[in-house]
Amino acid sequence: MDCIFCKIANKEIPADILTEDEEFLVFKDINPKAPIHLIIIPKIHLGPINSLKDENEKLLGSLILKAKEVAENIGVSENGYRLIFNVGRDAGMEIDHLHLHLLAGSRL
Ligand code: 5GP
Ligand code: ZN
Fold first, then answer.
1. For residue 26, which of 34, 16, 36, 35 has the smallest C-alpha distance?
2. Given Cys at both, which of 15, 30, 58, 71 links 8, Cβ 3.0 to 4.6 Å?
């Protein structure tokens, strides 16, 4: 499949990777909108939120908890951060591989 985030997950194209585990990969956004702008993706290809099903409930919960864990590890938990799912055209979504944005590092 011709998906940029699958290619990043498979290490076929480079990215500035912060951390990864069996399920998720965390890397820096190439065009950051805040001093800290991370993208958290499942390694398997899933579509955006509007395409998900009940069976994706557990993975979605884990994805958000992964963002929480990353925020703690990079030391932004106390000052705060913003988590964003862009969904569809009106949100300006560019990439249809499920991803969660984590923005932090300044007053947003
Ligand atoms: P979306 O608008 O789909 O929610 O966000 C996609 C994000 O992925 C954008 O913020 C964009 O800057 C980022 N992005 C797009 N292509 C690449 C890439 O090849 N590498 C990295 N690290 N980020 C990318
Ligand atoms: Zn993908």
1. 16
2. 15
Q: Which residues pair with 85 in a beta bridge?
A: none
Nearest CA to ligand 1 atom 24: 30
Atom of ligand 1 nearest to the CA of 86: 4
**What digits encode the pLDDT tens for the residues 33-74?**
999 999 999 999 999 999 999 999 999 999 999 999 999 999
Ion ligand 2: residues, CB < 5 A: 3, 5-6, 45, 97
Report residue 36 as tokens: 């800290």
pTM (2 d.p.): 0.97
Q: Where are the beta strands (DSSP E) in 29-97?
A: 36-42, 81-84
Task: Please say whether the beta carbons of 62 and 52 come within 8 A.
Answer: no
Contact 42, 59 (CB under 8 A): yes
